[in-house]
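User: Fold this; tokens only.

Assistant: Input:
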Amino acid sequence: MHRRADVLLGQKELLAKLAAGARGYDMYVPTSHAVQTLIRSGRLIPIDKARVPNLKNIDPAYLDTPFDPGHRFSAPYAYGTTIIGYNDEKAKALGLPTTTWAVIFEPRYLEKIKGRVTVLDSAGELFAAALVYLGYPGNDVDPRHWREAAAVIKRAKPYWAAFNSSSYIKELTGQSERRRRCVHQTRDPEGPPGLS
């Protein structure tokens, strides 16, 4: 049996590759955000659950999600959370809070670290963090709340150095040639159960 595995940088690259006509894959490992797009575009076929008996070992809470009700087309593979990564010494020295999204979105904190904050280059994760900062659920669908989140992001954006999902650990620890960062929105693969 011939197996082909392509490792891509993210869901945008996956969707672009498929839109460009990539063929020959038996399985994709997309994020939950990409599953709906793949279903709508006809790129996924329903799973024959009789051929995947270990689905019974997955907590039912993960088997009925808004992006694939009843999980007809997908099965949970991994999960993670979005967190705040920070340089402990610098955060303490500057009096920055490290347990709130305010450090990413609030100008009174951002003024202290302008140009030393990076956020994920995932609109879904950035908007979810902004919604939580505003006191709404991260998966809120109310258009008014999304407009509020967009305003928060626009207000904070001039203080950020970059949108980056790949080199933030090196930047936080100073192992990068780039200027050492102080705060970064990041992913935690060891976090509590959730959907990434």
